[in-house]
Amino acid sequence: MSDQPRQVILGAHFPGVNNTTVWSDPASGSHIDFESFRKFAQSAERGFFDFLFLAEGLRLREQKGRIHDLDVVGRPDTFPVLAGLAAVTEHLGLAGTINATFNEPYEVARQFASLDHLSGGRAAWNVVTSSDAFTGENFRRGGYLEHDQRYVRAEEFVKAAKTLWDTWPDAAGEPEPFEYQSTQFDIRGRFNVPTPPQGHPVIFQAGDSPQGRDFAAANADAIFTRHSEPEVGRKFYADVKSRVEKFGRDPESLKVLPGISFIIGDTDSEAEEIAAEVRAQQVSGQTALLLLEQIWNRDLSSYDPEGPLPDIEPDTEGPSIFAGRARQVTDPHAEVAKLRKLSEEKGLNLRETVIDTQSRQSFIGSPQTVADAIIDAVQTRVSDGFILVPHITPAGLEPFVQKVVPLLQERGVLRTEYPEGATLRDLLGVPR
């Protein structure tokens, strides 16, 4: 067994629409201006991160027929942003989320092959699925796909894309004809972009269901997960890696990368104070009401966010008041009872209760505390690294880059320079 510590993989997530970003902070910039993306990407590259990660939204969420409180900034298309970033970075991987339900293999394979060539082998595709008819209304076949078929299509989609990427191995030669038939696709022809520098762009996946985990184990190079807490993270890590083995792959060929938020202070106590302030800023009164409406499935606009929780019971019979992605609550009555108990025990009002139950920052503390936590998590196989989600965009990575990265480098778990000519696959240590 090697005495060398396991290397920490670092990704930087440009958050898009969410309730993580503190929109009211003067340092929070545009989420559609290219300058914001450039500053964010170059900050990550100064910190020797492996890649930048972009989410994707094909439709803005609606609540009671109106655009959700946190979806008002728009969602620029992934490929133009990543292509632009390829020109202003040299080493940073460029990962984009593209839906396998509402796109076609030839188009997506062509776009990612082009990005991989333009960036010198730095492209990555986060494969996501959707059975959401609301989102599907934007497309010709909107809502047609049954929920249990979404990963069937995704797996066939990825296989089709790989088939296309493999048909033109020599840029000086000619592409071989391709033909791919499956339950979802019947395509043939010749691909018009030579095989990407990486062979195949790196494949990410973010599903958490058993079906999603199997899809990642069979097809992906990295999995983006929410499981960052030590005990739960280790169970997820062990489960996914065991699935990889069942598909005949080396467990190290799939990297497990939880998304995390962080707060850094000069001391642990200062960081805790900042974290409390950030959580309060992340949940406005309006946001608190909208999030609770997703549990109650009722219009709660008449309630005071600074007052008690609603005294009515959730509506489990009527149609959903929310359209688009939302938290899935399997037992609204049990969830409401839990919130009421928490509110009573801690003496919290409505908004404070929502703040207390929202996802908290994963790593809070001094630079040394945060560095120690990250190193311990990777060495003890909670994960292979982390995808950082700052609460300020585009400048939110800077505290981590300036204060935590040097400590990781001193401990020998993060590079001090990029290898010459390395592709993203080389940086992540996943096979071609």
From TrEMBL:
Q: Which GO terms describe its molecular function?
A: monooxygenase activity; oxidoreductase activity, acting on paired donors, with incorporation or reduction of molecular oxygen
Q: Which CDD domains match?
A: Nitrilotriacetate_monoxgenase
Which residue ranges does the record assign to the Luciferase-like domain? 25-382
This enzyme's EC code(s) = 1.14.-.-
**Record has Oxidoreductase as a keyword:** yes
What does the UniProt keyword field contain? Flavoprotein, FMN, Monooxygenase, Oxidoreductase
Identify the residues that bind FMN.
T97, H147, Y151, S209
Q: Which family does it belong to?
A: Belongs to the NtaA/SnaA/DszA monooxygenase family.
Q: What is this protein called?
A: NtaA/DmoA family FMN-dependent monooxygenase
Native source species: Nesterenkonia sedimenti
What lineage is on file?
A: Bacteria, Bacillati, Actinomycetota, Actinomycetes, Micrococcales
